[in-house]
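Weekly sync, protein design subgroup
Attendees: M.S., D.O., the rotation student, P.L. (late)

Item 1: inverse folding check
M.S. brought a backbone from last month's batch and wanted to see whether the design step gives back something sensible before we order anything. D.O. pointed out we never logged the input encoding, so this time it goes straight into the notes. Structure tokens as presented (410 positions):
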């Protein structure tokens, strides 16, 4: 059911959705500057045929309802909203198999209702409570036929904000950007509505660990001569995987380092892993991690778009291969710098089809710092002193990589 690489079945039928590049819904622009809405209470009632969701807001919420398939989802888009709701109040039930909510981007929040069966929103309205003291958003969802779901998907026209709608930059050679500083895109995994993994003991969310580490890493990298680190995100916001790649390319990055700290079923597995991209995964652990990481976009309700046709370009293919060689070089540099300093998993350099590593012209690695599912790793991962030490080692590895690349005329 879950696939590593987007396939035809995940492609969107609605023509409008094929053009997923766009800006935030203009309807929300006006409220972006105001204080966020407060959702202070919620409840769900109903059965597996019809389910009602009620959310109370302090002010009148502007909202939009959208449908997305594979799996069947209803998206409720809202202006920036603080969700002061107890998790159990929005626990999935009735026809919903999963409910998520959180920040999408500056000034935008989203609720994603996932269902096992096709559904339709029979009612979606805002009711004013006595004297406009609060406002109640009522969503009634009921099961529908596949055809009805399909029909409402085709009828809707909306633009999802994914990658910035800029033209692709001309492809640069890896390690290019001649003359300017050496640019490293540091990518804090997950964010906003996508929390990532969660620590078993401290309940710390992966998105916060990755952000803290990314900031420490950017600081460490910026101490290297003639180097500029940029963060793909510097706060708790959602970025699609393609946005992360595009941000690195737009900045003319010489490297991209994506930071993660996931969980495994095997709670005793611990240590760091460095991933590079490949069509075929090095092992089953790598395959399942990539599969889960690649779900990030789906969690936020974003549809997969097929890779552009440039994939077939022969010159680009050469660049891609060269880039891959540089990525492997960097991964090996990180592994050897970590040795005896940071605990590594066995076979610490692995590879799989991570979508965040697909920039054809930016050597990229994904660094799993450790596993939030292991109690010892969890303690280290949330420790600022450990983060600082490891960030320093990654920066050292980048310095050594750069020395090699320059020595080889790259
Ligand atoms: Zn992750």
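Designed sequence read out in the meeting:
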């Amino acid at each position: 059911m879950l696939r590593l690489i987007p396939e035809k079945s995940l492609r969107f039928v609605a023509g409008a959705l094929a053009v997923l590049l766009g800006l935030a819904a203009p309807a929300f622009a006006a409220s972006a500057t105001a204080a966020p809405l407060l959702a202070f209470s919620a409840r769900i009632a109903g059965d597996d045929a019809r389910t009602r969701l009620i959310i109370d807001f302090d002010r009148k919420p502007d909202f939009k309802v959208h449908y997305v398939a594979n799996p069947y989802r209803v998206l409720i888009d809202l202006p920036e909203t603080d969700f002061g709701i107890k998790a159990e109040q929005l626990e999935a039930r009735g026809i919903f198999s999963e409910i998520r909510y959180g920040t999408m981007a500056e000034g935008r929040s989203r609720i994603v209702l996932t269902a096992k069966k096709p559904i339709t929103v029979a009612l979606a309205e805002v009711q004013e409570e006595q004297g406009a003291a609060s406002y109640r958003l009522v969503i009634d969802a009921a099961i529908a036929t596949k055809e009805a779901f399909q029909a409402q998907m085709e009828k809707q026209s909306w633009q999802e904000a994914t990658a910035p709608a800029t033209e692709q930059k001309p492809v640069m050679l890896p390690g290019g950007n001649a003359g300017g500083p050496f640019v490293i895109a540091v990518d804090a995994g997950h964010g906003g509505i996508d929390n990532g993994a969660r620590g078993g003991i401290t309940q710390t969310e992966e998105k916060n660990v990755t952000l803290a580490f990314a900031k420490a890493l950017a600081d460490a990298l910026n101490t290297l001569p003639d180097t500029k680190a940029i963060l793909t995100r510097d706060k708790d916001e959602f970025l699609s995987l393609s946005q992360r790649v595009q941000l690195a390319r737009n900045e003319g990055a010489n490297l991209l380092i994506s930071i993660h700290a996931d969980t495994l079923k095997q709670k005793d597995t611990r240590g760091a892993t460095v991933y590079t991209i490949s069509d075929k995964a090095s092992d089953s652990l790598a395959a399942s991690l990539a599969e889960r990481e690649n779900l990030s976009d789906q969690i936020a309700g974003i549809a997969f778009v097929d890779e552009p046709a440039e994939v077939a370009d022969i010159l680009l293919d050469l660049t891609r291969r060269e880039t891959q060689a540089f990525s492997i070089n960097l991964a090996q540099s990180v592994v050897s710098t970590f040795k005896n300093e940071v605990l590594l998993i066995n076979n610490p350099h692995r590879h799989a089809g991570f979508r965040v590593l697909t920039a054809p012209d930016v050597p990229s690695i994904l660094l799993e710092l450790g596993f939030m599912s292991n109690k010892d790793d969890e303690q280290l991962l949330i420790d600022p002193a450990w983060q600082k030490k490891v960030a320093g080692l990654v920066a050292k590895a980048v310095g050594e990589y750069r020395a090699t690349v320059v020595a080889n005329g790259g």
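Discussion: The chain has two domains: 24-155, 182-407. The chain has nine helices and 15 strands.
Action: P.L. to compare against the previous round before Friday.
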